Amino acid sequence: MSSSASPAPTYAVPDDWTEPERWTALPRGQRTDDRGSRVGFPHTAEGAASMAAAANTTRIDGEKSTADEQLRIYHSYVGKGDHSTENAKKIEEAGQQTDRTLTQEMGVSAGQPLPSGAYVRAHVVGYKVIKKSDNEVSVWLLGLVVQKNGETKKEESSYTRTLLGVQWQDGDWKLTSDATRRAQQDVAGQAQPPMVAPGDEEFNAGGWTAIREAS
């Protein structure tokens, strides 16, 4: 006697799900630099958005600190005109302060590794181009941050919204303070897009494009 059965579904679309009107698979960087970051993005608006998303994707755990990740981003994605010993020091100190806050939240002493199974992960789930030209793009990023304070702790998540300006420099897209200042001027007086998940009806109303993982 034989029978057939279908596997039980592991995920059901929520009843209040609203399909995003805009989806895209952003192009990946063509290579990995010596700090482990993907670089070499296409000279397109989507390439600029992809670089900005990569610069806002981090993983903090027992092996990588916030300071480590912020310095990686600084060296991989920030334009040379914004590089200085003073800026690097400020970024490292800000990362170290965040690490001290994390260790307090997770119940370990400052300078000690995070608890087993603890992590903070951030990645970008949506974006909205504000203004674009051949060599400069301003963009809103919608990020998801997930934090778990230990092996048996509950995972918690929150959404972030970041405004960035990027420029084409030396054959790749780079974050620059000048472009970001112009982005701030471009959105002055405008309503900021809502910090909501893809699937929320406000996601479409806010003009977000959902990011689909590239194959």
Task: Provide a descriptive summary of the structure in words.
This protein is 27% helix and 27% strand. It is built from five helices and nine strands; from the N terminus they run βββαβααββββααβ. The chain has helices spanning 45-54, 66-77, 85-105, 177-187, 201-205; strands at 23-24, 31-32, 38-39, 58-60, 119-132, 136-148, 156-169, 172-175, 209-211. Strands 1, 4, 5, 6, 7, 8 and 9 form a seven-stranded mixed sheet that branches. Helix 2 runs antiparallel to helix 3. The longest helix is centred in the middle third of the chain and has 21 residues, at 85-105. The protein starts with 22 loop residues before the first strand and ends with a strand. The model is unreliable at 1-8 (pLDDT under 50).
